[in-house]
Amino acid sequence: MQFGVFTIGDITPDPTNGHVPTENERIKATVDIAKHAEEVGFDVFATGQHHNPPFVAPGNPPTLLAYLAAQTEKLILSTSTTLITTMDPVRLAEDYAYLQHLAEGRVDLALGRGNTGPVYPWFGKDIRAGIPLAVENYNLLYRLWHEDRVDWQGKYRTPLNNFTATPRPLDDTPPFVWHGSIRSPEIAEQAAYYGDGFLHNNIFWNKEHVIEMVRLYRQRYEYYGHGQAHQAYVALGGQAFMHKNSQEAVRQFRPYFDNAPVYGHGPSLEDFSEMTPLTVGSPQQVIDRTLEFRDWVGDYQRQMFLIDHAGLPQKTVLEQLDMFGEHVLPVLREEFAKNRPADVPDAPTHDFLVERARRGESPVPGGREGSRAWSDAQERKAKLDAASRAR
Q1: Rounded Cα gap, residues 214 and 198, in angstroms
Q2: Which pTM does this prediction carry?
Q3: Longest dimension (CA), the chain
Protein backbone atom coordinates (compact mmCIF):
# COMPACT_ATOMS: atom_id res chain seq x y z
CA MET A 1 0.00 0.00 0.00
CA GLN A 2 1.38 3.37 -1.03
CA PHE A 3 0.45 6.66 0.59
CA GLY A 4 1.01 9.97 -1.05
CA VAL A 5 0.16 13.64 -1.17
CA PHE A 6 -0.99 15.55 -4.19
CA THR A 7 -1.25 19.23 -4.91
CA ILE A 8 -3.33 21.25 -7.33
CA GLY A 9 -1.19 24.33 -6.69
CA ASP A 10 -4.09 26.64 -5.89
CA ILE A 11 -3.40 30.18 -4.74
CA THR A 12 -6.19 30.85 -2.26
CA PRO A 13 -6.26 33.74 0.24
CA ASP A 14 -5.88 32.76 3.88
CA PRO A 15 -9.28 33.76 5.30
CA THR A 16 -7.88 34.29 8.80
CA ASN A 17 -5.42 37.03 7.85
CA GLY A 18 -5.99 37.81 4.15
CA HIS A 19 -2.50 36.71 3.09
CA VAL A 20 -2.22 35.70 -0.53
CA PRO A 21 1.02 33.87 -1.37
CA THR A 22 2.89 35.04 -4.44
CA GLU A 23 3.45 32.59 -7.28
CA ASN A 24 7.07 32.33 -6.26
CA GLU A 25 6.14 31.57 -2.64
CA ARG A 26 3.63 28.91 -3.68
CA ILE A 27 6.01 27.22 -6.11
CA LYS A 28 8.83 27.11 -3.56
CA ALA A 29 6.35 25.87 -0.95
CA THR A 30 5.37 23.01 -3.26
CA VAL A 31 8.99 21.87 -3.37
CA ASP A 32 9.24 22.04 0.42
CA ILE A 33 6.01 20.03 0.79
CA ALA A 34 7.29 17.29 -1.49
CA LYS A 35 10.63 17.05 0.30
CA HIS A 36 8.95 17.02 3.70
CA ALA A 37 6.49 14.37 2.52
CA GLU A 38 9.45 12.08 1.86
CA GLU A 39 11.01 12.92 5.23
CA VAL A 40 7.90 11.93 7.19
CA GLY A 41 7.35 8.68 5.30
CA PHE A 42 5.02 9.27 2.38
CA ASP A 43 5.68 7.15 -0.71
CA VAL A 44 4.34 9.38 -3.48
CA PHE A 45 4.16 13.05 -4.41
CA ALA A 46 1.94 14.11 -7.31
CA THR A 47 1.40 17.49 -8.91
CA GLY A 48 -1.53 18.76 -10.91
CA GLN A 49 -1.21 20.42 -14.30
CA HIS A 50 -2.74 23.83 -14.84
CA HIS A 51 -2.56 26.61 -17.39
CA ASN A 52 -4.66 29.23 -15.66
CA PRO A 53 -4.89 31.20 -12.42
CA PRO A 54 -5.47 30.79 -9.52
CA PHE A 55 -3.22 27.75 -9.97
CA VAL A 56 0.56 27.52 -10.20
CA ALA A 57 0.77 23.78 -10.69
CA PRO A 58 3.10 23.46 -13.69
CA GLY A 59 1.78 23.44 -17.24
CA ASN A 60 4.43 20.78 -17.87
CA PRO A 61 4.71 18.63 -14.68
CA PRO A 62 8.09 17.07 -15.61
CA THR A 63 9.64 20.50 -15.03
CA LEU A 64 8.80 20.29 -11.33
CA LEU A 65 9.18 16.53 -11.03
CA ALA A 66 12.69 16.52 -12.54
CA TYR A 67 13.75 19.10 -9.96
CA LEU A 68 12.22 16.98 -7.21
CA ALA A 69 13.96 13.88 -8.53
CA ALA A 70 17.24 15.62 -7.78
CA GLN A 71 16.04 16.70 -4.34
CA THR A 72 14.66 13.36 -3.12
CA GLU A 73 15.83 9.77 -2.89
CA LYS A 74 12.86 7.45 -2.52
CA LEU A 75 9.74 9.42 -3.36
CA ILE A 76 7.73 8.21 -6.37
CA LEU A 77 6.96 11.24 -8.53
CA SER A 78 3.59 11.34 -10.21
CA THR A 79 0.86 13.64 -11.50
CA SER A 80 -2.64 14.57 -10.49
CA THR A 81 -3.29 14.72 -13.38
CA THR A 82 -1.50 14.96 -16.76
CA LEU A 83 -3.92 16.35 -19.34
CA ILE A 84 -4.15 13.68 -22.03
CA THR A 85 -6.73 15.68 -23.95
CA THR A 86 -4.84 18.89 -24.63
CA MET A 87 -1.23 17.66 -24.58
CA ASP A 88 0.51 16.25 -27.63
CA PRO A 89 1.10 12.51 -27.05
CA VAL A 90 4.54 12.81 -28.66
CA ARG A 91 5.56 15.41 -26.08
CA LEU A 92 4.15 13.28 -23.28
CA ALA A 93 6.02 10.19 -24.48
CA GLU A 94 9.31 12.04 -24.73
CA ASP A 95 9.05 14.24 -21.63
CA TYR A 96 8.03 11.47 -19.23
CA ALA A 97 10.56 9.01 -20.64
CA TYR A 98 13.27 11.63 -20.14
CA LEU A 99 12.04 12.24 -16.59
CA GLN A 100 12.02 8.50 -15.99
CA HIS A 101 15.74 8.32 -16.83
CA LEU A 102 16.60 11.25 -14.57
CA ALA A 103 14.58 9.81 -11.68
CA GLU A 104 15.94 6.27 -12.09
CA GLY A 105 12.43 4.96 -12.62
CA ARG A 106 10.76 6.73 -9.68
CA VAL A 107 8.02 7.99 -11.99
CA ASP A 108 4.47 7.16 -12.89
CA LEU A 109 1.64 9.37 -14.05
CA ALA A 110 -2.10 9.78 -13.79
CA LEU A 111 -3.92 10.85 -16.93
CA GLY A 112 -7.01 13.03 -16.83
CA ARG A 113 -9.23 14.99 -19.17
CA GLY A 114 -9.14 18.17 -17.09
CA ASN A 115 -12.12 20.03 -15.71
CA THR A 116 -11.25 23.57 -16.83
CA GLY A 117 -13.24 24.13 -20.00
CA PRO A 118 -11.41 27.21 -21.38
CA VAL A 119 -8.13 25.26 -21.54
CA TYR A 120 -9.32 23.18 -24.49
CA PRO A 121 -9.54 26.00 -27.09
CA TRP A 122 -6.23 27.44 -25.89
CA PHE A 123 -4.65 24.28 -27.27
CA GLY A 124 -6.86 24.03 -30.34
CA LYS A 125 -9.13 21.36 -28.89
CA ASP A 126 -12.89 21.05 -28.39
CA ILE A 127 -14.08 20.07 -24.92
CA ARG A 128 -17.01 18.25 -26.50
CA ALA A 129 -14.47 15.77 -27.87
CA GLY A 130 -12.91 15.17 -24.46
CA ILE A 131 -13.54 11.42 -24.34
CA PRO A 132 -12.48 10.70 -27.97
CA LEU A 133 -9.36 12.82 -27.42
CA ALA A 134 -8.49 10.85 -24.28
CA VAL A 135 -8.99 7.56 -26.11
CA GLU A 136 -7.07 8.45 -29.26
CA ASN A 137 -4.24 10.30 -27.55
CA TYR A 138 -3.57 7.50 -25.10
CA ASN A 139 -3.62 4.93 -27.87
CA LEU A 140 -0.84 6.89 -29.58
CA LEU A 141 1.06 7.47 -26.32
CA TYR A 142 0.95 3.76 -25.58
CA ARG A 143 2.32 2.88 -29.01
CA LEU A 144 5.07 5.51 -28.84
CA TRP A 145 6.30 3.96 -25.62
CA HIS A 146 5.98 0.33 -26.74
CA GLU A 147 7.00 0.47 -30.42
CA ASP A 148 10.38 1.65 -31.70
CA ARG A 149 8.92 2.88 -34.98
CA VAL A 150 5.36 4.11 -35.30
CA ASP A 151 3.21 4.66 -38.37
CA TRP A 152 0.04 6.31 -37.19
CA GLN A 153 -2.94 8.29 -38.40
CA GLY A 154 -5.82 9.56 -36.27
CA LYS A 155 -8.47 12.25 -36.18
CA TYR A 156 -6.93 14.81 -33.84
CA ARG A 157 -3.24 14.93 -34.73
CA THR A 158 -0.83 15.12 -37.64
CA PRO A 159 0.04 11.62 -38.94
CA LEU A 160 3.34 10.01 -38.03
CA ASN A 161 5.47 7.99 -40.43
CA ASN A 162 8.27 5.73 -39.23
CA PHE A 163 8.55 7.86 -36.09
CA THR A 164 10.65 7.02 -33.02
CA ALA A 165 9.99 8.86 -29.76
CA THR A 166 13.21 9.62 -27.89
CA PRO A 167 14.53 8.82 -25.43
CA ARG A 168 13.16 5.32 -25.23
CA PRO A 169 11.63 4.40 -21.84
CA LEU A 170 14.10 3.36 -19.14
CA ASP A 171 14.86 -0.38 -19.43
CA ASP A 172 12.34 -0.44 -22.33
CA THR A 173 9.64 -0.19 -19.65
CA PRO A 174 7.32 2.85 -19.75
CA PRO A 175 6.06 4.52 -16.59
CA PHE A 176 2.97 2.95 -15.04
CA VAL A 177 -0.21 4.81 -15.96
CA TRP A 178 -3.19 5.52 -13.75
CA HIS A 179 -6.28 6.66 -15.67
CA GLY A 180 -8.00 9.26 -13.55
CA SER A 181 -11.71 9.89 -13.76
CA ILE A 182 -14.45 10.83 -11.35
CA ARG A 183 -17.49 10.43 -13.55
CA SER A 184 -16.72 8.83 -16.94
CA PRO A 185 -17.20 5.07 -17.32
CA GLU A 186 -15.36 5.30 -20.65
CA ILE A 187 -12.15 6.08 -18.77
CA ALA A 188 -12.65 3.19 -16.36
CA GLU A 189 -13.07 1.04 -19.46
CA GLN A 190 -9.89 2.49 -20.98
CA ALA A 191 -7.89 1.67 -17.85
CA ALA A 192 -9.21 -1.89 -17.84
CA TYR A 193 -8.60 -2.39 -21.59
CA TYR A 194 -4.89 -1.66 -21.24
CA GLY A 195 -4.45 -3.36 -17.85
CA ASP A 196 -3.46 0.00 -16.33
CA GLY A 197 -4.46 1.48 -13.00
CA PHE A 198 -7.61 3.46 -12.22
CA LEU A 199 -7.50 6.57 -10.04
CA HIS A 200 -10.78 7.78 -8.63
CA ASN A 201 -9.97 11.11 -7.06
CA ASN A 202 -13.14 11.09 -5.06
CA ILE A 203 -12.66 14.24 -2.99
CA PHE A 204 -15.95 15.73 -4.14
CA TRP A 205 -17.97 12.57 -4.60
CA ASN A 206 -20.15 10.39 -2.44
CA LYS A 207 -19.09 6.87 -1.67
CA GLU A 208 -21.90 5.27 -3.69
CA HIS A 209 -20.49 6.83 -6.85
CA VAL A 210 -16.95 5.79 -5.96
CA ILE A 211 -18.06 2.22 -5.38
CA GLU A 212 -19.87 2.10 -8.72
CA MET A 213 -16.92 3.42 -10.74
CA VAL A 214 -14.32 1.18 -9.13
CA ARG A 215 -16.58 -1.88 -9.46
CA LEU A 216 -16.95 -1.20 -13.19
CA TYR A 217 -13.20 -0.91 -13.63
CA ARG A 218 -12.54 -4.12 -11.68
CA GLN A 219 -15.14 -6.09 -13.66
CA ARG A 220 -13.73 -4.95 -16.98
CA TYR A 221 -10.13 -5.57 -15.85
CA GLU A 222 -11.05 -9.21 -15.26
CA TYR A 223 -12.99 -9.36 -18.54
CA TYR A 224 -9.83 -8.42 -20.45
CA GLY A 225 -7.94 -11.19 -18.71
CA HIS A 226 -5.38 -9.08 -16.83
CA GLY A 227 -6.19 -10.79 -13.54
CA GLN A 228 -9.11 -11.24 -11.21
CA ALA A 229 -11.23 -8.23 -10.33
CA HIS A 230 -9.81 -7.92 -6.84
CA GLN A 231 -6.29 -7.79 -8.31
CA ALA A 232 -6.87 -4.66 -10.39
CA TYR A 233 -4.89 -1.53 -9.54
CA VAL A 234 -6.94 1.11 -7.75
CA ALA A 235 -5.95 4.48 -6.30
CA LEU A 236 -8.21 6.84 -4.36
CA GLY A 237 -8.08 10.48 -3.34
CA GLY A 238 -8.95 12.03 -0.02
CA GLN A 239 -8.35 15.09 2.11
CA ALA A 240 -7.88 15.58 5.82
CA PHE A 241 -7.18 18.18 8.48
CA MET A 242 -6.05 17.08 11.92
CA HIS A 243 -5.53 18.29 15.46
CA LYS A 244 -5.00 16.12 18.51
CA ASN A 245 -8.31 17.52 19.73
CA SER A 246 -11.06 16.82 17.21
CA GLN A 247 -13.16 19.87 18.13
CA GLU A 248 -10.13 22.10 17.73
CA ALA A 249 -9.51 20.58 14.29
CA VAL A 250 -13.02 21.60 13.22
CA ARG A 251 -12.65 25.07 14.74
CA GLN A 252 -9.36 25.68 12.94
CA PHE A 253 -10.37 24.31 9.56
CA ARG A 254 -13.90 25.76 9.35
CA PRO A 255 -12.92 29.25 8.07
CA TYR A 256 -10.78 27.66 5.35
CA PHE A 257 -13.62 25.38 4.30
CA ASP A 258 -16.25 28.13 4.40
CA ASN A 259 -14.22 30.52 2.23
CA ALA A 260 -12.37 28.27 -0.22
CA PRO A 261 -13.84 28.59 -3.74
CA VAL A 262 -14.01 24.83 -4.14
CA TYR A 263 -15.79 24.24 -0.82
CA GLY A 264 -17.55 27.32 0.52
CA HIS A 265 -21.07 28.51 -0.09
CA GLY A 266 -22.41 24.99 -0.53
CA PRO A 267 -22.98 22.14 1.91
CA SER A 268 -21.80 22.71 5.47
CA LEU A 269 -18.49 21.30 6.64
CA GLU A 270 -20.40 18.62 8.52
CA ASP A 271 -22.53 17.64 5.53
CA PHE A 272 -19.58 17.67 3.14
CA SER A 273 -17.59 15.49 5.53
CA GLU A 274 -20.48 13.07 5.76
CA MET A 275 -20.85 12.74 1.97
CA THR A 276 -17.21 12.77 0.84
CA PRO A 277 -13.79 11.56 2.07
CA LEU A 278 -13.04 14.92 3.75
CA THR A 279 -12.06 14.13 7.33
CA VAL A 280 -11.56 16.88 9.90
CA GLY A 281 -10.73 15.62 13.35
CA SER A 282 -8.18 13.73 15.40
CA PRO A 283 -5.51 11.45 13.89
CA GLN A 284 -7.54 8.46 15.04
CA GLN A 285 -10.58 9.77 13.16
CA VAL A 286 -8.48 10.13 10.00
CA ILE A 287 -7.24 6.58 10.46
CA ASP A 288 -10.73 5.19 11.00
CA ARG A 289 -12.16 7.06 8.03
CA THR A 290 -9.38 6.06 5.66
CA LEU A 291 -9.73 2.42 6.63
CA GLU A 292 -13.40 2.67 5.66
CA PHE A 293 -12.34 3.25 2.06
CA ARG A 294 -11.31 -0.39 1.84
CA ASP A 295 -14.88 -1.34 2.76
CA TRP A 296 -16.02 0.74 -0.21
CA VAL A 297 -13.71 -0.57 -2.95
CA GLY A 298 -11.85 -3.60 -1.58
CA ASP A 299 -8.10 -3.82 -1.06
CA TYR A 300 -6.43 -1.16 -3.14
CA GLN A 301 -2.92 0.03 -3.89
CA ARG A 302 -2.57 3.77 -3.42
CA GLN A 303 -4.15 6.41 -1.18
CA MET A 304 -3.47 10.05 -2.02
CA PHE A 305 -4.21 12.97 0.32
CA LEU A 306 -4.80 16.62 -0.57
CA ILE A 307 -3.38 18.72 2.26
CA ASP A 308 -2.06 22.04 0.88
CA HIS A 309 -5.33 23.60 -0.21
CA ALA A 310 -8.00 26.13 0.71
CA GLY A 311 -5.48 28.81 1.70
CA LEU A 312 -3.88 26.88 4.56
CA PRO A 313 -0.54 28.47 5.50
CA GLN A 314 2.63 26.59 4.67
CA LYS A 315 3.53 26.18 8.36
CA THR A 316 0.21 24.42 8.98
CA VAL A 317 0.62 22.16 5.93
CA LEU A 318 4.04 21.00 7.11
CA GLU A 319 2.64 20.38 10.61
CA GLN A 320 -0.12 18.29 9.05
CA LEU A 321 2.52 16.22 7.24
CA ASP A 322 4.29 15.70 10.57
CA MET A 323 1.09 14.40 12.15
CA PHE A 324 0.54 12.05 9.24
CA GLY A 325 4.06 10.71 9.57
CA GLU A 326 3.99 10.29 13.33
CA HIS A 327 0.43 9.21 14.05
CA VAL A 328 -1.38 8.12 10.88
CA LEU A 329 0.84 6.42 8.29
CA PRO A 330 2.35 3.75 10.58
CA VAL A 331 -1.10 2.68 11.75
CA LEU A 332 -2.61 2.73 8.27
CA ARG A 333 0.22 0.59 6.90
CA GLU A 334 -0.25 -1.96 9.67
CA GLU A 335 -4.05 -2.04 9.42
CA PHE A 336 -4.20 -2.18 5.61
CA ALA A 337 -1.79 -5.12 5.68
CA LYS A 338 -4.10 -7.11 7.94
CA ASN A 339 -6.31 -9.65 6.17
CA ARG A 340 -5.03 -8.49 2.79
CA PRO A 341 -5.19 -11.49 0.43
CA ALA A 342 -1.75 -12.62 -0.65
CA ASP A 343 -2.71 -12.42 -4.33
CA VAL A 344 -3.59 -8.72 -4.20
CA PRO A 345 -0.61 -6.97 -5.82
CA ASP A 346 1.21 -4.00 -4.41
CA ALA A 347 1.25 -0.76 -6.35
CA PRO A 348 3.50 -1.17 -9.40
CA THR A 349 7.05 0.14 -9.23
CA HIS A 350 9.58 0.37 -12.03
CA ASP A 351 11.42 -2.73 -10.83
CA PHE A 352 8.14 -4.67 -10.72
CA LEU A 353 7.23 -3.61 -14.24
CA VAL A 354 10.67 -4.56 -15.59
CA GLU A 355 10.47 -8.00 -14.00
CA ARG A 356 6.89 -8.51 -15.19
CA ALA A 357 7.92 -7.71 -18.74
CA ARG A 358 10.89 -10.07 -18.48
CA ARG A 359 8.48 -12.88 -17.55
CA GLY A 360 6.30 -12.04 -20.54
CA GLU A 361 3.37 -11.18 -18.29
CA SER A 362 2.75 -7.55 -19.22
CA PRO A 363 -0.93 -6.88 -20.00
CA VAL A 364 -2.05 -7.28 -23.60
CA PRO A 365 -4.35 -4.38 -24.55
CA GLY A 366 -7.81 -5.72 -25.25
CA GLY A 367 -7.07 -9.07 -23.65
CA ARG A 368 -4.62 -11.89 -24.30
CA GLU A 369 -5.63 -15.22 -25.81
CA GLY A 370 -7.92 -17.14 -23.52
CA SER A 371 -9.57 -14.11 -21.92
CA ARG A 372 -13.30 -13.55 -22.22
CA ALA A 373 -12.60 -10.42 -24.25
CA TRP A 374 -10.46 -12.46 -26.67
CA SER A 375 -13.16 -15.17 -26.97
CA ASP A 376 -15.84 -12.55 -27.62
CA ALA A 377 -13.65 -10.95 -30.29
CA GLN A 378 -13.14 -14.33 -31.97
CA GLU A 379 -16.89 -14.95 -31.93
CA ARG A 380 -17.61 -11.56 -33.48
CA LYS A 381 -15.02 -12.17 -36.17
CA ALA A 382 -16.51 -15.56 -36.99
CA LYS A 383 -19.97 -14.04 -37.37
CA LEU A 384 -18.65 -11.30 -39.65
CA ASP A 385 -16.80 -13.85 -41.76
CA ALA A 386 -19.95 -15.98 -42.03
CA ALA A 387 -22.02 -12.97 -43.02
CA SER A 388 -19.44 -12.01 -45.63
CA ARG A 389 -19.47 -15.49 -47.13
CA ALA A 390 -23.29 -15.47 -47.20
CA ARG A 391 -23.21 -12.30 -49.30
Answers
A1: 8
A2: 0.95
A3: 78
